[in-house]
């Protein structure tokens, strides 16, 4: 499978062309264009996604049922050493594992889906332990951990299991994942249980995190274009909201001294 073919699938997904994705998968299968295990699995994932987006959940489940246990030897790189020399681990893309857990929830079987998401969380945390010496991979798997946890917490929130949600969020925070979305959910839960002061602190942290993130993004814009007036102004505003008034003024003064024609 060439990267242009995968890029084509991604482009169709970005445009919401789900029928086209199903047609593309059908043609690839009928013309035997899928030559490797990864090809088969990534196209299967795209097919399941397309079916789900078209609300054909029964067909999506049937498609998923055609796959063996993801952790069996059939889906390890080592089993196909001629195709994947010097590779180890599982061929299964994370997107397929995610869909495997999500589709039961979408079809109304919430408990089965939740159980699968907990299994997926265990898998992700196992990967985090394996990749401790690889900063880039650690960052990727931490994002996936938060991604999975957000769905799990949302399911428990739907059942008003606030105590479970609090425990899950605190556990994730203890692992160093201070995610704005999770903090927002924490604030919502605190409001539900009457902890208004705690909720206010959580929402204040969300605002601070988002402003800090925005400052970094505007700094990147300014590095690319030092005369980007909008980015400079917005960075100064974010610093002001962070109560860093002197830094905010400094940003504007420096730029005005460098580009006096702005006055």
Automatic annotation (TrEMBL):
SUPFAM superfamilies: TPR-like. It comes from the Eukaryota. Gene3D superfamilies: Tetratricopeptide repeat domain (1.25.40.10). This is Uncharacterized protein.
């Amino acid at each position: 499978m060439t990267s242009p073919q995968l890029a084509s699938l991604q482009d169709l997904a970005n445009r919401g062309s789900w029928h086209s994705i199903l047609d593309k998968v059908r043609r690839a299968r009928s013309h035997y264009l899928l030559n490797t295990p990864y090809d088969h699995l990534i196209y299967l994932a795209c097919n399941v996604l397309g079916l789900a987006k078209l609300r054909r959940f029964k067909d999506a489940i049937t498609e998923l049922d055609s796959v063996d246990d993801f952790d069996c030897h059939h889906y390890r790189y080592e089993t196909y050493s001629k195709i994947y020399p010097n590779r180890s681990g599982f061929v299964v893309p994370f997107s397929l594992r995610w869909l495997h857990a999500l589709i039961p929830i979408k079809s109304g079987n919430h408990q089965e889906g939740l159980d699968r998401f907990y299994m997926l969380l265990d898998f992700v945390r196992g990967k985090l332990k394996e990749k401790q010496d690889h900063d880039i991979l650690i960052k990727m798997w931490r994002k996936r951990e938060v991604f999975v946890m957000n769905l799990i917490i949302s399911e428990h929130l739907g059942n008003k299991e606030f105590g479970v949600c609090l425990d899950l969020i605190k556990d994730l925070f203890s692992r160093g994942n201070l995610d704005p979305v999770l903090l927002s959910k924490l604030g919502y839960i605190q409001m539900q249980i009457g902890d208004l002061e705690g909720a206010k602190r959580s929402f204040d942290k969300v605002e601070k995190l988002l402003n800090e993130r925005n400052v970094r993004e505007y700094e990147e814009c300014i590095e690319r274009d030092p005369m980007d007036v909008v980015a400079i102004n917005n960075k100064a505003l974010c610093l002001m909201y962070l109560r860093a008034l002197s830094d905010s003024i400094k940003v504007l003064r420096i730029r005005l001294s460098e580009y006096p024609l702005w006055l």
